[in-house]
Amino acid sequence: MKKSSDREMAYTRRSFIRQSACATLGLTGLVNTLAQLTLTRSALAQVTSFTDYRALVVLFLYGGNDSNNMLLPRVGHPAYDNYKNYRGALRILDPTDPAYVSGQPASIALNGDGNYAVHPSMQGIADLYNAGELGFVANVGTLAFPITRAQYLSKSVAIPPQLFSHSDQQVEWQSSVPDKPFQTGWGGRVADLLRSHGYSGDKVSMSVTISGINSFQVGNDVVQYTVSPSGSISLSGYSGSGTPYGGAMNANGTYKPNNPGLRLKAFDDISHYVHENLLEEGYAEVVRRARNNEAIVSTAFTAAAQSGVDLDTIFSGATTSLGSQLKTIAKLIAGREAIGNHRQIFFCSVGGYDTHADQLSAQGALMKELSNSLGAFSKAMIALGQNDSVMLLTHSDFTRTFTPNGTDASAGSDHGWGGHHLVMGGPVNGGRVYGTFPSLKVGADQDVDANRGRWIPTTSVDQYAAVASQWMGVDTTALNAIFPNLSRFDDPFGSAANLGFINPT
Question: What CATH number should be reported for the domain whose range is 53-236+287-488?
Fold first, then answer.
């Protein structure tokens, strides 16, 4: 049975109503800054509608990925000795280290400057990095303000609330506004602004989730649309003949003269009635939109099958939950003309990263799934000729404590703070580590604890997300509206932040 902390996605009815309401109501508190978007529309309306295609994929690793063992220092890196001395039972050594024992897992060296390596189960990630298709952003996390260790210990600067809580940090990552109650996600706000940016032609929502309702895509105007790895989510009770409505509809879209067909026709007829009650009419509109979207998504899947790219073969080595989600995204990108969007924001996720015990074995499987799935997705984008149009970046609750909670192979790690993240795709200036890699010195520098190794982030979620948002087409002057805390931190496009992970366009 899955741990609830692995993936806070099993929303209650109350949670669903709250999130749905947030997508309808206006914004409050500091996030009311976004009301200024209406003031920018007159200027943005002068911008020509997008004609190129770009897609942003956000992958959430639920449970808190221990990225201390995803991106590793090698012998010669300033932090290597600290890694070797403090990582304890969880350490994965550089095979050139005299302390390395033959037969143990060994880190995989990355090419280029910096003396970095990756987890031994991530050969595919190493290949993408060395090919310039993937990079890392070091020590990213939720921040209300820039903060030093001394300020943290003296409590003189505000920190995000419930700092080491799974559910709170998941929402704060997805909202990027940790010091205010949740209202919208940063992806939802980007979609709202892009829609006002002279955007037109969309038949299905710009925000598509392959992993259920999430906070990231909650917006004010653009509503997230959910699909499953097998396609659009259809009405239950109409299966048959290999398609969701095969028992009720003919291939030409007409209703069959049987009970399922008559029942479906009656349902569709009723959904097109005009209701006097606003709630009834609102519900009917949701149903109509969902039925229309089903047909469009089905057309997109058909177009993907006719693209000449064999996605089944490409993803044959990634038949996991994550691989299936990324394969679905690849299909939607392949069938993008049927959907009609010039901008798309996708959300997918995978759980299991809450590794309090047996981390070495558990994380080995997780890193292999991540590496194989991203490798397949990259190959798919290249085969489809869309690699330069698609960027993927990861999120996670937090990294985990640098020091383990045990001394043998059963050890795991506990909840931490700032961690390392992947950025991938043709737009990415890969083969580099961005941000600031921590010293890995326990009880000093970026460690907020005396002995656990919880790193204060040196790059905020706001900065990290702003770079991706600008690539999607958000005007520089509008970034502070989408990320109201952004001005508190170093300019993400300046040299001090070291976040130039997007190739100039």
Answer: 3.40.720
